[in-house]
Every structure is written in structure tokens, then in C-alpha cells.
Design goal:
single chain; 557 residues; Rossmann fold; Hect, E3 ligase catalytic domain fold; four-stranded parallel beta sheet; four-stranded mixed beta sheet; DNA binding
């Protein structure tokens, strides 16, 4: 009796596609074949749910390792049919060649021609191998078409349903689970409040939010970057590599399936976009390499100021004297003879020129956009407060349950759980205190947040209000973008050792403006300061309300 190793394989490509020939059926047929042909089965190898399109199969590879080690003891490898062994003609030929070198026969229950020898066997294997490869491609195409049709209907394509949603089994789409969605909103809003994923995780856990997901920095980051929370559906961003490598490759964006408003949103598009900008901003800050001597102050005009002598750009430098730090714009070419100019002088004149050259409507529009951001921040704060208040109430209920048990034990002179429950009550009190402090901080921060309407604001804003102090109520990012939007470049030319000529070249069709800047002036004002955080608008809110109050009291603005 001869010795045989047998191999079986099935694949599962998607939820609605299964191989017709099960593993059990294959083994049953092979065992019958071995009995008829007088083979004894010494080893069985099976790959369940693996494609025959490549050789990336655990038992398939184990089988060949076993064959190389024990080839003198094995007479044949037997399969149900060729497609179970491989659906890739190149792989099929490769492994049949290995079997020939090991002097091991390859036999198929359903293809008797495998028992032939020479060119006849090779000819038939080529034909059947090509057919198997074609079938594989057709099966894959059927599955791809079915999945693409399903994706175009905006249906869930498998995998984990995003936290905050459940899956409607009838239409295959997401539905909001409000209790979980509240946590998702809290995560987004807290991030916009300046908290990092670690802080957000700790706060949610301290609030004893019930969550089926494991909260950590990674899961918080996954939530913050998932566009599905805006109601947007995307499919087909990555695809399998044709060489069988399990690492997927990116697909060109024009080939994605994208459906907006596919399911109910948990997060507004505006909030999602703000969070992505904030993530980029934090990443830049984190990766920023500081100079050996850090330059304090904001660099409003970097990238715009140019030297007329050598064409190099100016950068911000600093020096320390008896009366404090001084900041300058100076040419980046160390060999250039041009002198440096005081930062406060140049920035003040540039901003003043912008205010004089452009129509007040420009600044009204700027104010309007900042105003919208303020409202967004206030709404986020209020939503966070609602979430926090709810968690406080839940903790109070839990605390009262423990207090009732403690009272009952004391009245019955029993002390079984009293100490344990007292410790729990103490922990809950700390959690409540932390959350109440958080609410209090938000209330202080946004006490000024009862903003007047646009019309009220513009009634009291006359042209005289648009000055540098007014611009300083905005964030640094906003003012820097304003400067870049209107100014092409600023060219500095030294007139003599004490004076420089500054030319501002505008983008928006406005004529260039030139002025002279004197060096060595004393008693200059402090450096201009803007909020570093694009989302801190306390000063803007305060100024707005003060202006309105002054108007109501009949005072001149």
C-alpha cells in the first residue's frame, strides 16, 4: 500500500458567497478514492476560508514543508480537484514542479488525466489550470459587483459598526444610539475645548460613562477622524494587492463610493472640520523644532518681508538688553549689509496701512466669521455642560443608593459593607467635585457668551473702531491669514544707517504704499499680541459686549 498526503481547501468571499464543496465533502471523496486506489492517508492538511488565488495559506505551506522533510516516505498528494490545490496557473505549475523534483505524484479525484505522464498531462493541466484561474477571477468579479452595488446603496459593508450607532438589519444602514452618541459628541467637543485624548478618556471614565468600547488614546483618535459621524459614507478607499499580499493599497479618490447624508449625523460637518484643523495644528506644534535660542512673540510677517539688496527673506530674531527683550526682522543672508528693523514698528505700520487702504466692509466680514466661530464654541461648551450635568446626576443617584445601604446597616447594627460603601461614596464625591469644577470653569469662561446679534453689533461699530486694538481681539491665525490674503510682499531698502524704506505691495489691485522707518526710536509700545489659540475668543466677546453696553448707555464709542 502506498502513502498519501491529502489536501482540502474552501474559500469564503463575502457574506453571500460560499464554496459549494465543503471540506467534509472533499475529504469524504478523497478517502473513497484512496480506498479504491489502495492509498493509505498519512497526513491531512486543510485550509478553511482561504483563497486559491495565491499560496498565502498556512496548511498549504505546512504541507510542502512536511513533504520536503518526508518525501521519501510519501508517494502522492491527493486533492478533490485542481482548483482546491490552486486557482492560479503560475502557482499550480510551480508547485507541481516541486512535487516532480521530490518524486511525489499529484492526483485529483475529479481529474483522472493527472495520472497521465509527459506532455499529455502537462497539456491538460494547462487547460484546467487556466479554467480554474478564470473561475477565480469570475467569482471575485461577482463578489466585487455585489459589494459595489451594496455600497452604492450606502449599506454597511461589514466590520465594526462605529460607536454611537447600531445597524438596522432591514436596510443595512446606521441608526443613532443616543446614549452612546452623547459620548461621541462629548469627545469631539472636549477636543475642541483643548483637551487631549488622555484627558478625555479619564474624564469619561471618571463620569462612569457606560461604554462597550475600550477607551484609550487610540480609540479616541479613531472616533475623531471617522467621517461617518457626519453622515458621510465612503467605500473602496483601499483594495487588495493582486500579488496576494495582505497589505491593502490605496485607490484613487475618483474611484471611491462617496454618499453624503447617507445616515443620521452625530456630529456636524463644521465641528468635524474644526477638529481636523485642530489635530493638524497640534501635530505641527508637537513636531516643531525650536531654535537654539527660542524667539518669543508671534511672527506675523514671516514669508512676506524681502530684502531689496540680496532678495532673501527676513526672519524674526531677538536680543536681550537691560530693559528686556527686543524683537527684529532681519535678512536671512548673513553676508547682507542691510540692517535689522524693529518688529513692533514694522508690524504696526503694516496693519495700520491695511486698515487705511481697505474698505471697512472687509473687517465687518472678518468680524462676522469670527463671530460664527464664537457661537460654535459657546454651543460646544453648552453641550458639554449638558453631558456633564447628566453624569453628575447619575453619580448622585449612585451615591444615594450606597448611603441608604449604609444607613440601613447602621440602624440594624450590622457592619458588613459599610466601610466598603463609605469608600465608594468618597470616590463618587471626588468625581462629582471634579465635574462640578469643570462646569464652573466653563460657566466663567462663557459668562460673556450671551452675544448680541449681528445687527446690534454693526449698529454700534462705526469706522473709527477699526484700529489695531480692534484687530488684536482676533486670533493670531486669523490676522496672519488676513495679511497674507492682501499683501504680495514687503520690500525693505536701507536708506542709511538710521533709516529704511518699506514698500508694501498689495494683491487686491490696491496701489503699493511706501513709507520710511527710523531706527533707534525709544519708548516704542509693547509687541503686538494675539491669541495663540484659534478657538479662544474671550477678548472678542468682551469687546463686543462692552461696545453694545456703551451704546445702550448713550456713551460715545
Amino acid at each position: 500500500m502506498k502513502n498519501a498526503v491529502i489536501y482540502g481547501r474552501t474559500s469564503e468571499m463575502g457574506p453571500n458567497f460560499h464554496e459549494k464543496i465543503s471540506i467534509d465533502a472533499q475529504i469524504y471523496e478523497i478517502e473513497g478514492y484512496c480506498e479504491r486506489k489502495n492509498y493509505e492517508i498519512v497526513e491531512t492538511f486543510v485550509d478553511k476560508n482561504y483563497s486559491g488565488g495565491n499560496d498565502n495559506r498556512p496548511d498549504f505551506n505546512l504541507m510542502f514543508a512536511h513533504l520536503e522533510k518526508h518525501h521519501k516516505e510519501i508517494d502522492a498528494v491527493i486533492v478533490y480537484n485542481l482548483s482546491r490545490f490552486s486557482r492560479n496557473l503560475t502557482d499550480l505549475k510551480k508547485y507541481l514542479k516541486i512535487l516532480d523534483k521530490l518524486d511525489i505524484d499529484f492526483l485529483s479525484v475529479m481529474e483522472p488525466f493527472c495520472e497521465l505522464s509527459g506532455s499529455a498531462r502537462g497539456f491538460m493541466i494547462n487547460i484546467l489550470g487556466s479554467v480554474a484561474e478564470l473561475q477565480r477571477e469570475q467569482n471575485a468579479e461577482v463578489v466585487r459587483s455585489a459589494m459595489m452595488l451594496k455600497s452604492r446603496q450606502g449599506k454597511h459593508m461589514g466590520g465594526k459598526v462605529p460607536y454611537g450607532y447600531s445597524l438596522n438589519r432591514e436596510n443595512g444602514k446606521y441608526e443613532i444610539v443616543e446614549e452612546k452618541a452623547e459620548i461621541v459628541r462629548y469627545i469631539f467637543n472636549s477636543y475642541m475645548d483643548g483637551k487631549n485624548p488622555t484627558q478625555i478618556t479619564e474624564e469619561i471614565k471618571s463620569a462612569r460613562a457606560k461604554s462597550e468600547m475600550k477607551l484609550n488614546e487610540s480609540s479616541i483618535a479613531t472616533i475623531l477622524t471617522n467621517e461617518k459621524y457626519t453622515g458621510k459614507y465612503e467605500y473602496g478607499k483601499r483594495k487588495n494587492n493582486p500579488n496576494g499580499d495582505r497589505k491593502k493599497r490605496k485607490v484613487d479618490q475618483e474611484n471611491w463610493v462617496v454618499i453624503n447624508n447617507n445616515h443620521p449625523p452625530i456630529i456636524s460637518r463644521e465641528t468635524f472640520d474644526l477638529v481636523q484643523k485642530e489635530r493638524v495644528k497640534r501635530r505641527i506644534v508637537k513636531n516643531k523644532v525650536e531654535d537654539k535660542k527660542p524667539t518669543k512673540g508671534q511672527k506675523l510677517l514671516t514669508g512676506l518681508v524681502k530684502c531689496s539688496c540680496c532678495g532673501s527673506h527676513y526672519y524674526v530674531s531677538s536680543s536681550t538688553r537691560n530693559y528686556g527683550d527686543y524683537y527684529y526682522y532681519m535678512c536671512s543672508n548673513k553676508k547682507c549689509p542691510h540692517k535689522k528693523v524693529r518688529k513692533i514698528q514694522l508690524e504696526t505700520i503694516v496693519l495700520q496701512t491695511i486698515l487705511e487702504v481697505f474698505d471697512p466692509e472687509v473687517f465687518k466680514d472678518l468680524y462676522r466669521r469670527e463671530y460664527d466661530k464664537v457661537l460654535e464654541r459657546i454651543n460646544i461648551s453648552l453641550e458639554n455642560d449638558r453631558f456633564t450635568h447628566k453624569k453628575i446626576q447619575d453619580l448622585i443617584k449612585e451615591k444615594n443608593i450606597y448611603l441608604n445601604v449604609i444607613r440601613d446597616e447602621i440602624s440594624q447594627k450590622v457592619n458588613i459593607l459599610t466601610d466598603d460603601y463609605k469608600e465608594r461614596v468618597s470616590k463618587i464625591n471626588k468625581q462629582i467635585s471634579t465635574l462640578e469644577d469643570q462646569v464652573h470653569r466653563n460657566n466663567i469662561k462663557f459668562l460673556k457668551g450671551d452675544l448680541p446679534s449681528y445687527s446690534q453689533i454693526f449698529e454700534v461699530l462705526d469706522d473709527s473702531i477699526y484700529n489695531i486694538e480692534f484687530l488684536q481681539t482676533f486670533s493670531f491665525g486669523t490676522i496672519k491669514n488676513l495679511v497674507k490674503y492682501y499683501i504680495e510682499e514687503i520690500v525693505i531698502t536701507d536708506i542709511n544707517t538710521n533709516e529704511s524704506s518699506v514698500e508694501i505691495i498689495f494683491k487686491q489691485g490696491a496701489p503699493s504704499v511706501e513709507f520710511n522707518l527710523k531706527r533707534g526710536q525709544r519708548n516704542l509700545p509693547d509687541e503686538l499680541e494675539f491669541s495663540d489659540d484659534d478657538y479662544e475668543y474671550d477678548l472678542l466677546i468682551l469687546v463686543t459686549n462692552v461696545i453694545v453696553q456703551m451704546k445702550e448707555q448713550g456713551m460715545a464709542v
